[in-house]
Amino acid sequence: MKNIATLILLIYSSITFSQIKGKVTDVKDHPISLASVYLENTITGTTTNNNGDYSLPIAKTGTYTIIFQMLGYKTVKKIIDVNSFPHTLNIILEEEEVTLDEVVVNSEENPANKIIRNAIANKAKNTDKFAKFTADFYSRGLFKVKDLPKKFLGQDIGDMGGGLDSTRSGIVYLSETVSKIAFQKRPKNFKEHIIASKVSGQDNGISFNQAEDVNFNFYENSFDLADVKVISPIANGAFGYYNYKLTGVFYDKNGKLINKIQLLPKRKNDRVFSGFIYIVEDDWAIYGADVIVTGTQISLPIVDTLHIKQNYNFSTNNKAWVPVTQTIDFKAGMFGFNFNGRFSAAYSNYNFTPNFTEQTFSNEILSFAEHATEKDSVYWKTIRPVALTSEEISDYKLKDSIKTIRTSEKYLDSIDGKNNKFKPLDILFGYTYEDSFNKWSLSTSSPIENLNFNTVQGWNSTIGIDYRKLLNKKGKRLSIGADVNYGFSEKKVRPTANFSYQWNNTTKPVLTMSGGVATPQFNEKQPISKFWNTISSVFFERNYLKNYEKTFAKVSFSQEVTNGIRMFSSLEFADRKPLFNTTDYVMFPKDDVSYTSNNPQEPSNFTTGFTPHHMWTFSLGTNINFGQKYLSYPNGKYNISSRKYPSLFIGYKKNFGSGNTEWNSDLVFSELRQKINLSNWGEFAYKAKGGLFLEQKDIPFIDYAHFNGNRLLIAPKSNYLDNFYMLPYYQLSTNDKFVELHGEYNFKGALLSKIPLLNKLNFHLVTSGKALFTPDNKPYSEFAVGLDNVGFGKWRLLRVDFARSTFNGKHENRVVLGIKL
């Protein structure tokens, strides 16, 4: 055992000390971060950390030529003799001397425009040189906060993992990822296999430093940044968005002439970059990029700026310029929170002739090696290509020691003991008892938050109790709950109970059982908000909510049967009864307005409703996400819907066992939906629904096909494709066939940003169209023009639409206000 221990120590020592290390600074002794450090004639090496420190692993002594390169600085080539390890080599980089002396200015064309045109024309040729490859990928994420408030909306924020100093400033997130990536240009494929992943202060070690998320390819016409397409400076249509200025040229270490071109956006709020792009003369390839985009430009108001810097090196193997380092710096702030951070990435060990087969790529685009999140500090020292800064080392040590304490049963029990203290007002505002160590909680809901009004129950509220238990880290969990609702005008209590069990986070099989007495809306999609119905009723005497009573028992089950296909099924027995108004309370009565009855078919009939009956309902459906990709994490599978293909839902619903065969029914229905990113022209989304009752009969009105109308001035949901703007709630409900269409085009600033003065507002023009086709009726249609991203500064919470409907030759106009967070 002693010999084995000695051998391990010797191996570890050789790995640790067989290296060339040092610091890279500028002439003012400021550290230069993310500088490339590599052996001559290779593109494999390391990069400096945020303090300018580097460590280049070398297997044996000898003579080496080391290259130090960083965008904006002169490349340094250093020949050294290494006789022992570790060998220290500190380097000072001077700023690149950019000159215009060698540029011949042609009065007929801006020289920068000519360079950009050549770069655009040679995009395919340059990217074909690395059309497929494998590489090692390393990423580090760092978030810092400054002067963090102690409370937000009355709630304690805490110490964010323990990394804050006395001014409540410091690191709140630090993570690292080492992975293997594979890329193919045609057909386009990408996958990543994570070898090691680490998050400071967390025991699961799963970072979100995913390689594809930071694959900012300037050769593409546009790429995703915060879920928004940003136009590349060398996009095919780039001249419609950028002006260019050649600010100078310089020569790289190989004698290649590099053009430094300034990017000047034509319009302030377009989704474009400012900054610089560097183009290699004759090759017309990207040498580097140093660009900035604002949060306003990418519709992310919380962000001030995103600063992206890319460095490319020349590969002698395939005569290609390939990315080797990338940094993404950001500043953000809102509600007193001020963040800044950096995601840094390094690519190495490129293989441009990989042996890809048909099995190389699949819908799985991310996977983890076994025990990837459980690597210790010794392993990380051997594999980490970029040295940690002293601040990062301290954060790991501090939070790892805190983690040991804060995950202990004693500590968690002490925290729970403090948080679980019951206060008298908790009866009104809700209470939660939590056992953090054993992963369970017991909560009661707030009767104040659940207070609402309708004309059947009057003022009513619900109080509930809910038990939740996490059974393992793979997603096995259960919840059990019960609610009691009481209507003060109706003077009636209605209890319900529910049970839910999920087996895992991979296929997510979920079993749900529920039962009791409830008052659902006639439309099972529940389109009318209880809150907005309360406002509409109490203040304006408009009671749009129509409900009935059912005593029910229901069981449901859903599961993903294969990637992209999820099945749903349910069986319910319900005893249904009509309900009638019991109150005409209104805060501000009006002589010309009065409540309608609770009968959606006969608003003036206050005495009779539908015939009480019971009904069995069986439903079966499948949701198909075509082209769905997924991420395989250690704790589960996470799906990513494709925007290239639509999603399709197909369903069948059978009502039976009512005792009256005329009331039984069979309905088949489907829904097709898709959101299409149109690059610099915004986003188009559509949803098409259709259904057919297999036999038209006089079935209960509850079982008709109902449509999500709206009679409020407030948009009922954030997803505008689910609702109409002003369709009366039950006017076109049908027991026959139907087709429902919704389409929306959000220009995302593509048009308004080109109009002087209006472009300063940064509003987004939205147009939409909706239609409903039912038998024995003329088509119902709506058209709307709206403004999204309405507000000022970072407060962009509003959307305003002017809508016009057409039905039976009549038109109605309405302004609808939407609120989003």
Structure description:
The structure is a single chain. This protein has 821 residues and is mainly beta. The protein contains eight helices and 43 strands. The strands form six sheets. The protein has an 18-stranded antiparallel sheet that branches. It is globular and about 100 Å long. The model is unreliable at 1-17 (pLDDT under 50).
Number of strand segments = 43
- The SS-based structural class is mainly beta
Binned, the helix content reads 10-25%
Number of helices: 8
Oligomeric state of the chains present here: single chain
How much of the sequence lies in strands comes to over 45%
Low-pLDDT stretches: 1-17
Radius of gyration: 32 Å
Distance between the termini: 62 Å
- Characterize the overall form: globular
Average pLDDT confidence is 89
User: Could you give a short account of the major beta sheet?
Assistant: 18 strands, antiparallel
